[in-house]
């Protein structure tokens, strides 16, 4: 899971933009003094900003006992954490065994073509982020994807594309 | 009368929420005084959305319900008392094969009660086992009952549960922890999700009993973040149990204290390994620790800790209330009780099935699961996810027990059973598992970190048509080294898919290497796309879809693929509406 250890590249892994760090105060009040709660802090931070901004991580490091290297280590170890912002709709494509056997590759291909992005990327209009996940636990409905917490099962490439188009339509309306 | 709507993740994905709304609307319109409640997954995911109508002792189960059918059910069945036979899949009087061949212990309440209402759980005797334990049993007696029952860990390795509890009881120190491993990360396994979403109180009760037995007052459920509904229902259940004093201080006036909290995982398969899970609980990167010391001596914050998975805890209250002898009477001599399997892949009836141990694989796949989708030919069943193995048809009569399965090179594991038919390429699936373990390796041990990568590279070489026979020997040697030299279960079992597929499906590897053919027609680099001139109408669609302009032909004339230019992307194959592009 460790991608690289060159410091320049490490900085490039983050999106450094101005954020309101005062939003983190209640988070640190709740967890700052509780030992072993770095993951909780990062989860709460991601809930606030949608990702882990560099400024927020620096702020956490300055105001808790966690070294920057430790925070970076944890933030890059777990797949849940993102160092870059996501779109309004987060599409998790299940890449579990049952989905793989039942054609998730083709569904994934169709989604990439429709959204013109690769897994891990966000569409230019900031609407959709595409991500691969290992298993959503809905194996009997394979292939499956989850959009903002809602699972869609028994997908075909055409159906997956339709779901995306419907979300686009409803979002405009 | 009472109506239950299946609202596990599977039911919701199939449209269960709309069904519930429709029933509620129709019930209100007809001024009926009937309770309509959500329930968890009954395991028949292939029939979702499911609606149960309970009329006295009789229960009617409707399958594939949509909003319209739901309205009809209310109007005909609830108002006029006329069951809609065409949509009923089974009734309590005439259960179908999927239900009949199962024996439910861990899942007994899933799909039967409202998981968000503690009274539903209490009504069927819930928390009775806890009361019995707290009021009339010593710690040693509880552990003795676990020993008699023969319950073994349901998460993978199958370690005797009583032994772990006993070790934690005997460990020095007063601060001890009970941890539930609900980080069900095995792709292809979802039985724990079903318990968490469908019967959270059963898990909580099991954990409190464990806490009492080993002398712990604190419990933590480590639940994966990919299960938002499970976390929501667990939170509700913990709140309700605390209000009723099944959790908290001086439980039921017995002086025993136990608190419980949820810790959300952050997505790392290796955290299913108990020492990695503990590291993660402590807010660190989830990298396994050296054993010994075992968690029972030195676990969470270096205190004595007992970790069991969800399904294991879900068996505990049943054992206490029904007696350990009754549990031990189920199954075989060394593998007692039941085990839940998640049937998926190319199987007709995919869902959860709880079976007594000792039943054969054939009984599960064909007897309960209904056989292969589209009546294709069975090829293999993958047991135990990326840590398990692929078994061929000749081993279908193997009894499902810890011992018999490990003899074949596969494992019971968490209970994932992914069925594959003749259109699945074993080499491709093995590559898929290696990709998974390679991504999920935490990087601590060299053999696991680099060995899985090298194995993956060899498999990629083979599926791309560049493999040699020597590669197979190297693959096997590497697999055995990784198995030996890795610290934790992830690395030690990562080679299992390679070793079992080499053992049982060597022919398929050879076909890829020597004949440069993929018998299942999955490995694109080994395919040749051709246009059948008799079927081709010359619609030009394939030529337009081809990213490298490898298809020639004029309108209304048969087209031809230029094999030198073709990159085998398969676009023409999926685009053609006449089935003219052939493999």
Number of helices, where a helix is a run of at least 4 consecutive DSSP H or I residues of chain A? 8
**Count of spatially separate domains of chain B:** 5
According to DSSP, the number of beta strands of chain A is 4
CATH superfamily of the largest domain in chain B: NADH-ubiquinone oxidoreductase 51kDa subunit
Helix/sheet category of chain B: alpha/beta
How many domains would you count in the coordinates of chain A?
2
The number of distinct helices of chain B, counting runs of at least 4 residues, comes to 24
| Residue runs with pLDDT of under 50 for 5 or more positions of chain A | none
Structural write-up:
- Chain A contains eight helices and four strands, in the order H-H-H-H-H-E-H-H-E-E-E-H.
- In chain A, helix 7 (104-115) packs parallel to helix 8.
- By secondary structure, chain A is of the alpha+beta class.
- In chain A, 35% of the residues are buried.
- Chain A has helices spanning 7-12, 25-31, 38-49, 54-63, 68-77, 97-101, 104-115, 157-172, and strands spanning 89-94, 128-133, 145-147, 150-152.
- A four-stranded mixed sheet of chain A has the order 2-1-3-4, covered by helices on one side.
- Helices cover 45% and strands 10% of the residues of chain A.
- The longest helix of chain A is centred in the last third of the chain and has 16 residues, at 157-172.
- Chain A folds into two domains: 7-77, no CATH class; 89-172, Glutaredoxin (3-Layer(aba) Sandwich), CATH 3.40.30.10.
- With 583 residues, chain B is α/β, with parallel strands linked by helices.
- Chain B has five domains: 2-95, Glutaredoxin, CATH 3.40.30.10; 118-327, NADH-ubiquinone oxidoreductase 51kDa subunit (Rossmann fold); 338-421, Ubiquitin-like (UB roll), CATH 3.10.20.600; 426-513, de novo design (two linked rop proteins) (Up-down Bundle); 528-582, Alpha-Beta Plaits, CATH 3.30.70.20.
- Chain B is 40% helix and 15% strand.
- In chain B, strands 2-1-3-4-5 form a five-stranded mixed sheet.
- Chain B starts with a strand and ends with a strand.
- At the A-B interface, helix 3, helix 5, helix 6 and strand 4 of A face helix 1, strand 10, strand 14 and helix 17 of B.
